[in-house]
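User: Structure tokens for both sequences below?

Assistant:
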Amino acid sequence: MKKLFICFLLIVAVGCAKKHTKPTDEVVTPEVEVIEEVIVVEDDQVVDEITFAGEEGIRERELSAEEKAIFTDVFFDFDRYNIRPDARPVLDEIASFMIENNKLEIVLEGHCDERGTNEYNLALGERRAQSTKNYLRSLGVSQSRIMAITYGEEKPLCTEKNELCWKNNRRAHFVVVGQH
């Protein structure tokens, strides 16, 4: 009887431990199976050729003036990967443009500032890229047209050591790679 009671307590404790999660203000997207392949890029590697949508050797292409105005970076708070309210209109416009131009394919790059370990920043960059991808998917952009990769802290926009610079490095960057 004592063993049964101890087993019961262990089951309750494990069950209760899983129920207590830290609430976040992360955007809730429609239920989708999230099994994603993320490319991790370290050091000075450059994505100049990728396999995407069944084709080999797709390269970043020159953007029109309209595309440059639409595909702007979205930024994240320190140590966060949730979509900020100021990023939603930008992503809404990107999704709308991609739906209208249903042959565009993009690579979403997740970036971080230099604080934290390399491994931590690669994982955080991945979460930022995935969060951005999931938001676009929730607006109707096909998953097959978006690839997510992470650079972590490896490709900063700014190299100064101050908050303004770090703020600009915490981003998801869009690379238009071609037609679908």
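Moving on to the next sequence.
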Amino acid sequence: MAAEGKLRLYLDECVSPSLAEWLCRQGWDVLTAHEAQMLGATDEEHLEFASRQGRILLTFNAKDFKQLAEAWAAQGREHAGIILCPAVPKSAYGQLVHRLEKLQSLLSAEQIRNTVIWLGAIWD
């Protein structure tokens, strides 16, 4: 089922602002930690903020956010979704955006809610 419109993303401070610019040029609704004045926040604070905003958190910090998502699930806490992906150089932004587009074609924001998705698993 294809999602209507672009997924709303929140990029934590592990993700380069240049990726946010790239995504915005492609029509994505993106909010960065810098724009939200969340620099220096803990991982939990980033996830709480993204959840309050109804935004899916995109991070390169896979290990810590996977553990945080597991802790939240054990506590019965909800979030808008977490997308984990490997840190990529600027030269690979096109491929990363392609994978996000693929994800969006497969799942809606509601289907991503309370899930953790490894973007590296979304292949062409």
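User: Anything stand out in the second?

Assistant: Strands lie at 8-11, 29-32, 56-59, 82-84, 116-118.
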